[in-house]
Amino acid sequence: VRRNPRYYATDHVHLDEIRFLPIVDGSTAVNLYKAGDVYAMHGRAVPPLWIPALRGRRDFHTTQAYRSLFYAFNTTKPPFNNVLVRYAFHMATNSQAVARFLDAGQTPARTVIPVVSDYPGLHSLFAEAGGRVWDVLSYDPPAARELLRIAKAEAFSVDITFPNRPRSKEIAEILQAQWRANLRLRVNVRMVGRNVWIQSLLATSYSGLIESGQGPDYADPNGIFDLFTSRTDGSGWVDAGFNQLLEGANGELDAAVRMRRLAAC
């Protein structure tokens, strides 16, 4: 892109041109940066293994982002049409291990909504199954295996689909190792091109789980909750009661009450 001489404030534009390099591999981008051929790169393009070496540089900056990375289940097909199976996978996932791998200030997520001012969030969520009450937001591999037993889903193969972009493969492999160990299941990872990944999300045409997430343009829970009303999260999950709760919460004029009602969603 080149500076536009007809722009009304052209005297304040000090760059003559900017060149964008379509580099998929993060290590390649970092090497070009070190050689002086690249001057800036998107934060999510920096491979985690490079972060310790880059952290001490003056032009390396981190800041909080209102973004949530999660994996969507294909709820339109067995076994993930059973909520107990989905609970089991959540309880078998140590998100702290993913945050440690990323190593740039990311925090382990307990739910899909990041921390934001006045939003109370959830620290536990109790569900009854097999005559017992389970905290399905806890990390509890033995309880996760018991939920699979109750759901009669103890032996099956799981696919994890993810796009060809930095960090996705490594995160999928962390989950693969956790679910193999904690749930004693066969877990396969499957990398696809970005366009195939997006189409798979929109059409729910994958099997098992798929990388998903949301980084809304404004720091408010609705920016992520709205993803589940339009079914663009990739799961195929839809619930009229949830949609009604969300609409009612967003119609609340008192900001504090609205946040509490959003948490109830």
Give the % helix: 25-40%
The total strand number stands at 6
Oligomer: single chain
Number of helices: 10
The radius of gyration computed from the alpha-carbon positions, rounded to a whole number of angstroms, is: 21 Å
Q: Largest beta sheet: what is the strand line-up? A: 1-6-4-5
List the helices and strands and how they pair.
Layout: H1 26-34, H2 51-54, E1 68-73, H3 83-91, H4 95-102, E2 126-129, E3 132-135, H5 141-150, E4 157-163, H6 168-183, E5 186-192, H7 194-203, E6 209-214, H8 222-229, H9 240-250, H10 255-264
Parallel strand pairs: 4-5, 4-6
Antiparallel strand pairs: 1-6, 2-3
Helix pairs in contact: 3-5, 8-9, 9-10
What does this structure look like?
- With 265 residues, the chain is α/β, with parallel strands linked by helices.
- It is built from 10 helices and 6 strands, in the order H-H-E-H-H-E-E-H-E-H-E-H-E-H-H-H.
- The strands form 2 sheets. The chain has a 4-stranded mixed β-sheet, sandwiched between helices.
- Helix 6 (168-183) links the parallel strand 4 (157-163) and strand 5 (186-192).
- Helix 9 (240-250) packs antiparallel against helix 10.
- The radius of gyration is 21 Å and the shape is globular.
- The mean pLDDT is 93.
